[in-house]
Amino acid sequence: MKQPLTLIIDDEPDIRELLEITLARMGIETYSAADVSSAKLLLENQIFDLCLTDLRLPDGDGLEVLDYIQKHQPNLPVAMISAHGSMDTAIKAMKKGAFDFISKPIDLVALRQLISSALKLSTHPPINLSNKPSDSTSATTLLGNSESMVELREKIEKLSRSQAPIHIKGESGAGKELVAKLIHQQGPRNDKPFIAVNCGAIPHELMESEFFGHKKGSFTGAVTDKQGLFQAADGGTLFLDEVADLPSSLQVKLLRAIQEKKVRAVGTQQEIPVDVRLLSATHKDLATMINAGDFRQDLYYRINVIELVVPPLRSRVEDIPQLAQHLLAKLAKANNLKQPGLAATAITALKQYRFPGNVRELENILERALALYDGSVITKEDLNLPASNNSSNLAQSGEYDPSQVSLENFLEDIEKQAICDALEENRWNKTATAKQLGLTFRSLRYRLKKLGLE
Asked: Which of 28, 162, 166, 239 could make an S-S bridge to 180, C-beta 3.0–4.6 Å?
């Protein structure tokens, strides 16, 4: 088996020697350079498996090296060595495509973890991200021929090779967790855990314990030691869904965990090093929350090194037929039923619907239709969609045009849109939704049934 080859670029002889000794003990051959020009000469004559470069060099900087490598050896992982206080430059490097960074003074445990992850990039098999999955009921498939989905799959493939924190932005039900899983599975951590957590579902008083763990007896009810989510995801990926719901006290601790790559369990004084790829998501506007003082700006910059937008279903209407067939196949298999066909009228109706709940709502609609349809195909009537598409579009704009829609249908769609928005904001918790809308739970249930949202 070929011995891995690493290029070390640093103008400090002591750092170069430390890195050379560490990598030699890992069975990795090294070449070293003290400046940008020497590094370019080596890159012209050798094919490397990894590059470790200092950010500040006598005749340039690590960003120049990164640009050169991306042009001449685009598959070569580049890790930046950053001095204390140059975090902003390290983040800039990751935005430009650096694999990861490590801070001085160098933590050898973290360095070895970084090197091991980087070297896996050339050995792990890529996942199938095409829109033609080999298993029609696969849960890790990103379907769609639309331009936005083709572009999203390409971005996932590229970003999976980095360790940069990614913030996945999109409406509820659009598939943010699926995107996070694909980033994990396509990357070098795919043999380690993928831990997903809904930040809005954890009681605030238990959040620190859930994230960082606790020791037995550290508080009432702590009858045993508990491993936190960071420790559970060690070596793998931690996906924080609805990260906007984190309380300010936890935001501070999360920021420190990301910066230091260490966590401290409740009831202990010892910090434990952790190696996780951090992905986050929310359907809320974090920039607005920062302005309102509800979300820390420094944490936002740490989790949002790269932003990845998942398009809403209504912006990629051409993907709906393929998605619908895929979801029907999955639902039919799960319920031991023969997969029905979709009538042309049903497909047309789905393509005209706005889907405020996105792919999740499409699945719910098809699941309901599968349970209620009578015949060989699912028809438009089986879908139980709103009767007037014009009124739905007008309700979105807030403009009433009596020549296009009746007042009754227009008001009904405004009511439906308001309830859907509240349901999405409360993650489809009906009790919380009723409270927000000033309704009794029974009244909300009645409206959901009347509007076809139950």
From this structure: 239
